[in-house]
Structure formats: structure tokens, C-alpha cells
Design brief:
The complex is a heterodimer. Chain A contains twelve helices and eight strands. Chain A has helices spanning about 5-25, 35-60, 65-70, 80-100, 105-125, 150-155, 160-180, 220-225, 280-300, 305-320, 320-330, 345, and strands at about 155-160, 190-195, 205-210, 230-240, 240-245, 250-255, 260-270, 275. Chain A starts with a helix and ends in a 29-residue tail after the last helix. In chain B, about 55% of the residues are buried. Classes of the chains: A alpha+beta, B mainly beta.
Chain lengths: ~375, ~130
């Protein structure tokens, strides 16, 4: 481990400030369909207890810098939210365990060192070693696909009329909504990057729609087999719109509704890792398939018991580290829940839609994640 | 927070609440429907959600997923424009008011108007 205790505390403060701001922007995340808060805390406890060992395995097989740079290729899922999640899921789990008095100061420092060093090296390389580590360091910029911009822009076609604009925006919305459902109300199923400035003064927003088809999510087997594309990239050329992206991989624009500013677009099947444009008929078939799959999936999730929903959501969260392991070629046990069973009976009761108990301390950016405890 | 009652073309227009709009949009009208469980959504999925103004408590994206494209508008009682439901409403171009506070809640089926033409977004009961 190369990070000392001051380094670790510096990164804890850094992540606390960034993630507190993101959380304040987003606030509530509960869903009447999926017990999001319960599965998050269970997954994050698993992350705290298991990520350091998994990261050790990954880094024995691949340099973190190489994994970060892999995010410059299409479909690797080394993307803003997956990079952000590695330290933050771990830190959220640490927060839960700290509140329960279950942290060992020595072991905590060791675990933090492993996770923070991995993240620091991955994130630095992902951002082209420009001295930043996340979009929030640069005013909301993440441009991993800069090498593809010229080719993408060349394929973008002007939006002919309002009817065409409606078709394109509907396809995008259906895919976005379907992916939220497929990924159990996380936004990691789609990831925005940009702004990519174009030579003519316009701006390119890229949206990766990930794992549309059957994947390692068990529930996808029954509902996603008919999706005609597995990985898709959307490209939207904006005029007169201010764009920034968050470390959740979400775009924010001024004006808030960017669709009237979209002048040209393209959709690519990137399942092979290359850019293969899809045409109007393919887009229509994709929209239809997404609508059907979404209905089937909703009915399936609605019929699941609460515990099954929690376990499925926890699996989605816990496997945010999976893209790095797959790139490194290491075989990991992703079973969840596994190392949170001692706390599961308490954690599964958490309901984020309820008000916190009276007297609960108000969090600030400074207190969002606790610093290292003094050594005994 | 009944802020105004006016009579336009023989319709009583009552502002019943406000919230943060997700994006600017012209006023839309529809039938109020408070949705609390997936069964409520499944019922609309199997019939139609066209013209429905859905009122929901939580700001997750998934609850309304299969009917979102049919809704006239969404009134969410929590969250911000960057909550998941706000993001999806932006993509669907369905007007949405977040963290809405309602002085009185319309009955299911009441005709309401969601006005996101200015900040804050306003919910009006037209019934």
C-alpha cells in the first residue's frame, strides 16, 4: 500500500464533499416498486467487507491504470458511475458499520488504503492523467470517447422535423426507463458523457445504453432475449445548450429540457466494440422490443417478494466492481448476500421513504464520511 | 396552500399546490390518480394511462416505468429534478413537479392542470 493515513483521510474528505453534493442534488431514491434503500445498505456492507480482497485479486492480474484506460473503449462499462461507485459503495458500507460500532481501526485503515489506491489509479488513467479524478473536478466534464468523436459526428444526421424528433426522443426515453428497471432503479444502465465540443461550435452528448439484452442479471433471461441490440450508443448534437455531466453519469443541461436543442443524432450498435449505425427500421424495432420487455419485467418484479427484490438490487450494486474483474480476467464469487447476513435482519427493514428519527444529526459535506479513527 | 380561486369559462380553477418543475413546459390537463402500489400501475398498464396525471410519493424511476410514456404529467411528493423520476420525466418529455406540497389532494378522476411554464410548477384543480 502506498497511501499513508493522511492520503487516506484526504480522499475520504474528497469523496464526502463530492458525494454529499451529488446526494443533495438527487435526494430521495426510494421506489414503491423496489426497496432501494434496504438493498443499498446491504450491498454496501458487502462492498466494505469484500471489495478489498476482490481488488487485490484484480490488481494481481491487471494494472489499475490499464483498467482506467479501458474505459476509453466502447462497452467496457468502465464509466463515470462505475468508477465513482468503487470507493463510495465501500464508504457507505463503512458508514453503516461505523454507526453500529463494528469497525476495527487498524483493519479499517488497511481496507481503505487498498480501495482508495485502486480508485485513485483507475480514475486518474480514466481521465487521461490530466490531474483530475472525476467529472466534479472539472466542472462536469467526462470525455472518455474523445477518440471516436469525429467518426460519430460524421454519422449524425439532422433531425428532419418534429415527428422525427418525437420518435428519437421516445426511443431514448424507452431505453432509459427500461434500463432503470433492468438495473433495479440505478442509473448505471445508461451513462452520459460529454460535453464533446465539435468544430462547428455545437456540442456532442453521448449516451451509452448498457446491457440491454440477456446479461448476468438472472431476471434478464426471461424478458430481454428479444432485444435486438445488446449495447447501444446514442449521439446527440446540441446547439445553444449548456451541458455538464455528473459522476453518476447523468447529464444536466441549460435549458433543462435539451430536446429542442438537439439538431442531429445517431444511434450505434456497439455490441462488437465498433460503431455500427442503426437505421430507422432498426430503431423502431428496438423501441417496440424495449416497450414489451419493460412491461414483462415490471410484472415480474411486481410479483417478487420483498426479500427477492432486495437481494436482486444488492446484486446489481455489489457487481459494480464486476466490469473491472472481467477486464482483468479474474473469476470472482459475486454471491449476494453473503457477508452481510449477520446484519441482514436489521438492514432489510430500512425504508428510505420514512423520515429519520428525531435528533438524527444533520449531515454536512464534512461529516458525510468519517475520517480514520485514531489507532489504539 | 389554496392560493387562488378564479372562474374561467365556468370552471373553478384552484391552485392546490406547488413544487419544483423538472423542465419548462406548457400547462397540461388530465385526470388525477394517486398511485401507491405496483398493482395500481399494472391496472393502468393493462387498460390505459393516457391522460392520467399520476401522483406518487417516492422519487424512484421504476415505479411508473411501463406507463410513463402515456401519462399527461407527474406530481411527485418528494425528490428533486435530478431524482430518478425527474430524469425519466425529462427524457419522456412528460411534465413533472417534484417535492410538491398540496393543500388539498384532488380525488381520483378530478381534472387537474399541471403548469410548468414558470418556476415553481403549479398544480390546479379544475373539477
Amino acid at each position: 500500500m502506498t497511501l499513508d493515513r493522511d492520503d487516506i483521510d484526504r480522499w475520504i474528505r474528497y469523496h464526502g464533499e463530492v458525494s454529499y453534493a451529488l446526494t443533495m442534488e438527487r435526494t430521495a431514491l426510494e421506489s414503491a416498486l423496489i426497496p432501494v434503500s434496504a438493498y443499498i445498505v446491504i450491498a454496501c456492507v458487502e462492498c466494505y467487507r469484500r471489495y478489498p480482497e476482490i481488488i487485490d485479486e484484480i490488481t494481481r492480474a491487471a494494472a489499475p491504470e490499464d483498467l482506467g484506460r479501458a474505459g476509453h473503449r466502447l462497452t467496457t462499462q468502465v464509466d463515470p458511475v462505475h468508477v465513482w461507485s468503487v470507493p463510495n459503495f465501500f464508504l457507505i458500507g463503512r458508514k453503516v458499520l461505523g454507526a453500529a460500532g463494528l469497525l476495527d481501526p487498524v483493519e479499517d485503515a488497511r481496507r481503505l488504503g487498498i480501495v482508495m489506491e485502486f480508485w485513485e489509479r483507475v480514475a486518474g488513467a480514466y481521465r487521461f492523467d490530466d490531474g483530475t479524478h472525476q467529472a466534479s473536478d472539472s466542472g462536469g466534464t467526462a470525455t472518455p470517447y474523445r477518440a471516436f468523436v469525429e467518426e460519430i459526428a460524421a454519422h449524425c444526421e439532422p433531425i428532419a422535423d418534429d415527428s422525427a424528433r418525437a420518435d428519437i426522443s421516445r426511443l431514448n426515453a424507452l431505453l432509459t426507463s427500461y434500463l432503470f428497471l433492468l438495473w433495479f432503479d440505478t442509473r448505471s444502465g445508461y451513462q452520459d458523457t460529454g460535453p464533446y465540443p465539435l468544430p462547428d461550435g455545437r456540442t456532442l452528448l453521448l449516451r451509452a445504453y448498457n446491457r440491454l439484452g440477456v446479461s448476468h442479471f438472472p431476471w434478464s433471461a426471461d424478458v430481454s432475449a428479444e432485444m435486438p441490440q445488446r449495447e447501444l450508443l446514442g449521439a446527440f448534437v446540441l446547439r445553444d445548450s449548456q451541458l455538464r455531466v455528473t459522476d453518476f453519469g447523468t447529464s444536466m443541461t441549460q435549458p433543462e429540457d435539451y430536446w429542442p436543442c438537439v439538431e442531429a443524432f445517431a444511434f450505434f450498435d456497439v455490441s462488437s466494440g465498433a460503431l455500427v449505425p442503426i437505421d430507422t427500421a432498426q430503431r423502431a424495432a428496438l423501441a417496440s422490443a424495449a416497450k414489451t420487455a419493460q412491461k414483462q419485467l415490471y410484472r415480474k418484479i411486481a410479483g417478487m417478494e420483498r426479500r427477492a427484490k432486495i437481494d436482486a438490487g444488492a446484486y446489481v450494486y455489489f457487481t459494480f466492481l464486476r466490469p473491472f474483474a472481467e477486464l482483468a480476467g479474474v473469476d470472482i464469487d459475486w454471491t449476494v448476500p453473503r457477508d452481510s447476513l449477520d446484519l441482514y435482519p436489521f438492514l432489510e427493514l430500512i425504508d428510505g421513504s420514512l423520515d429519520p428519527p428525531p435528533g438524527t444529526p444533520v449531515e454536512t459535506a464534512e461529516t458525510y464520511y468519517s475520517p480514520l479513527s485514531p489507532l489504539p | 396552500m389554496v392560493t387562488a380561486v378564479t372562474r374561467l369559462h365556468s370552471i373553478a380553477v384552484t391552485d392546490i399546490g406547488t413544487g419544483t418543475r423538472v423542465f419548462a413546459a406548457d400547462p397540461v390537463r388530465g385526470a388525477w390518480r394517486r398511485l401507491t402500489s405496483p398493482d395500481d400501475v399494472l391496472e393502468l398498464m393493462d387498460t390505459s394511462a393516457e391522460g392520467v396525471v399520476a401522483c406518487v410519493a417516492d422519487a424512484g424511476a421504476t415505479f411508473l416505468a411501463p406507463i410513463f410514456d402515456e401519462l399527461a404529467a407527474v406530481v411527485c411528493l418528494s425528490g428533486t429534478p435530478l431524482s430518478h423520476i425527474g430524469i425519466v420525466s425529462r427524457e419522456y418529455q412528460v411534465p413533472c413537479v417534484m417535492a410538491a406540497t398540496l393543500a388539498t389532494e384532488p380525488a381520483d378522476g378530478d381534472v387537474v392542470e399541471v403548469d410548468c411554464s414558470a418556476e415553481p410548477g403549479v398544480v390546479r384543480n379544475l373539477s
